[in-house]
């Protein structure tokens, strides 16, 4: 049975919660104790909301659940108070009996003791109605007065009687709850970033040195040398622009027809890029090389990173003729949307995603800012200009070597892309970060204070947590993560933990990853597995003549 879930895996969690609730209640009844099933489910819901790890319990988790979460979110009458610690005792007892508490949990004895220690705090919190949230406050009032909460007419009548003063409620507590909830800002649910496998220095050096955009930026910077004259509005002279275009073999179809430097879009972009990367600057009307940038030209990785970081600052310079005023989408400029694209690509861990996902994310962000659905109001011209400039941005990133572009040509996902795009002609482009791009975004996120884990950072975690997180990763990353997990600990203890997990692992992909980790333990893994098989065979032989049991022992489930 799976015990680790992500915030978006509600269907899988709901199924497991129902199964766990049935087993926990059945176990308690066999022991002669009654447990309220809804409170067992509530405790599991709380743990799912905290970290999605149903088998990971510490004393702090227990204390917070009893003193804060249950009083705030669960409607209880005075006679029902002792049912909450009873439900937690049953939950912890079941997990401990089946050896399902993970390796980082406190011991069952400590957890049971914390339930006893925190029960008075539960009672104190329930005595003060200000500790409820708004929904719980009204649910408690209706329970006290026997109002069926599933009957809308009965609820409406009750609230009307409260307003008329016919039913007494603690209005000071109600006012405090309303004030507190108005002041609270709900934290957005964020999906943790996956660990990534970064390239080595030699690989990065080769990739940076082979970057087409980096070669152009280097050549353009050297071409500038001591200086090049500019027009009054900061553009290259047409002769200079055509000369550098010829030297760099750019703007093939524009050189003969160009009337100004603006008619050479590749050179115009290169100039903007070099200025944003602080390779060149304007001094007294002349374009000159930045003196401190000279050593950078012979340091490919440093220069590549500077060029990559500069891309976000030239967002308004993409797009054909009007390079200084590229369109925005209802106020979302391309430069502002660039970090959203990088985050999406990094979260994919190097796998390709449809560029339509980025367009959808931008439209959703615009809708949220406006407070209503407005993306449908964007005219076709505005949408096409925006998409044109996104394409130019992606092309620049591909020239730099930060992303890899391909097209979905099979047509099988056309309907899905069309629904995502909200149009009949979705962009079939798929985009993925290259290893060098992953490294650059990782550096950027780390500098911003965002936790971006690397392979090996899960080494001290429980095996199921690692397996579930690895299931969504690329094979190379998942195998490197599991190898690091095994190497972090004694191989015999690693094998024992994996085998305990395999006894309840049901999903094929999770079992496959766990078996890979077991294989990495080598001889200890084989020895432990052999010992487990012999113990199991002895247990089956001893039980062969025993009376068959009616109840299902969940420890023997495949």
Describe this structure in words.
With 558 residues, this protein is mainly alpha-helical. The chain folds into 4 domains: 10-183, no CATH class; 201-317; 334-439; 463-543, no CATH class. Helix content is 57%, strand content 4%. The protein contains 23 helices and 6 strands. The protein has helices at 10-30, 37-50, 59-73, 83-97, 108-127, 134-144, 152-163, 171-183, 201-209, 212-224, 238-248, 265-276, 300-311, 334-347, 355-370, 380-400, 414-421, 435-447, 463-470, 475-487, 491-502, 508-520, 523-543, and strands at residues 228-229, 280-283, 286-289, 353-354, 403-407, 429-433. The strands form 2 sheets. The protein has a 3-stranded antiparallel beta sheet with strand order 1-3-2. Strands 4-6-5 form a 3-stranded antiparallel beta sheet. The chain is globular and about 90 Å long. Residues 319-326, 535-540 and 542-558 have low confidence and may be disordered.
How are the secondary structure elements laid out?
Blueprint: H1 10-30, H2 37-50, H3 59-73, H4 83-97, H5 108-127, H6 134-144, H7 152-163, H8 171-183, H9 201-209, H10 212-224, E1 228-229, H11 238-248, H12 265-276, E2 280-283, E3 286-289, H13 300-311, H14 334-347, E4 353-354, H15 355-370, H16 380-400, E5 403-407, H17 414-421, E6 429-433, H18 435-447, H19 463-470, H20 475-487, H21 491-502, H22 508-520, H23 523-543
Antiparallel strand pairs: 1-3, 2-3, 4-6, 5-6
Helix pairs in contact: 1-2, 2-3, 2-4, 3-5, 4-5, 10-12, 13-16, 14-15, 19-20, 20-22, 21-22, 21-23
């Amino acid at each position: 049975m799976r015990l680790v879930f992500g915030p978006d895996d509600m269907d899988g969690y709901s199924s497991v919660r129902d199964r766990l609730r049935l087993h926990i209640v059945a176990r308690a009844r066999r022991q002669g104790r009654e447990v309220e099933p809804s409170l067992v489910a509530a405790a599991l819901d709380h743990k799912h909301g905290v970290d999605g790890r149903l088998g990971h319990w510490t004393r702090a988790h227990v204390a917070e659940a009893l003193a804060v979460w249950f009083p705030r979110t669960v409607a209880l009458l005075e006679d029902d108070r002792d049912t909450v610690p009873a439900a937690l005792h049953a939950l912890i007892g079941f997990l401990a009996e089946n050896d399902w508490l993970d390796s980082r949990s406190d011991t069952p004895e400590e957890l049971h003791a914390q339930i006893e220690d925190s029960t008075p705090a539960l009672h104190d919190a329930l005595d003060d109605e200000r500790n409820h949230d708004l929904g719980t406050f009204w649910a408690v009032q209706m329970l006290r007065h026997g109002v069926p909460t599933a009957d809308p007419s009965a609820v409406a009548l009750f609230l009307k009687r409260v307003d008329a003063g016919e039913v007494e409620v603690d209005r000071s507590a109600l006012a405090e709850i309303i004030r507190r909830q108005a002041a609270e800002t709900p934290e957005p649910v964020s999906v943790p970033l996956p660990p990534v496998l970064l390239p080595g220095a030699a690989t990065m050096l080769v990739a940076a040195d082979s970057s087409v955009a980096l070669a152009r930026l280097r050549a353009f910077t050297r071409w500038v040398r001591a200086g090049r004259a500019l027009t009054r509005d900061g553009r290259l002279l047409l002769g200079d622009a055509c000369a550098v275009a010829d030297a760099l073999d750019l703007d093939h179809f524009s050189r003969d027809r160009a009337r100004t430097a603006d008619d050479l879009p590749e050179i115009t972009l290169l100039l903007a890029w070099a200025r944003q990367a602080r390779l060149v600057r304007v001094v007294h009307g002349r374009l000159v090389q930045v003196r401190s940038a000279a050593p950078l030209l012979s340091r490919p990785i440093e220069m590549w990173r500077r060029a990559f970081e500069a891309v976000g600052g030239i967002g308004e310079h993409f797009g054909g003729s009007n390079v200084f005023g590229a369109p925005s989408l209802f106020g979302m400029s391309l430069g502002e949307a660039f970090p959203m694209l990088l985050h999406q690509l990094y979260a994919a861990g190097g796998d390709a995603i449809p560029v339509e996902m980025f367009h959808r994310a931008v439209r959703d962000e615009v809708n949220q800012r406006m407070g209503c659905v407005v993306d449908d109001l964007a005219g076709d011209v505005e949408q096409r200009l925006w998409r044109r400039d996104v394409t130019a941005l992606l092309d620049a990133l591909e020239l730099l070597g930060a992303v890899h572009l391909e097209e979905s040509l099979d047509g099988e996902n056309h309907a899905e892309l069309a629904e995502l795009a909200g149009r009949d002609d979705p962009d079939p482009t798929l985009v993925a970060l290259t290893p060098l791009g992953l490294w650059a975004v990782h550096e950027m996120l780390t500098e911003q204070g965002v936790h971006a884990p690397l392979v090996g950072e899960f080494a001290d975690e429980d095996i199921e947590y690692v397996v579930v997180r690895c299931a969504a990763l690329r094979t190379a990353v998942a195998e490197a993560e599991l190898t690091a997990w095994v190497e972090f600990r004694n191989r015999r203890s690693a094998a024992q933990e994996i085998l305990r997990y395999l006894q309840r692992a049901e999903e094929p992909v999770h079992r496959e990853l766990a078996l890979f980790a077991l294989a990495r333990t080598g001889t200890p893994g084989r020895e432990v597995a052999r010992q487990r098989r012999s113990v199991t065979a002895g247990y089956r032989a001893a039980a062969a003549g025993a009376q068959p049991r009616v109840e299902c022992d969940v420890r023997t489930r495949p």
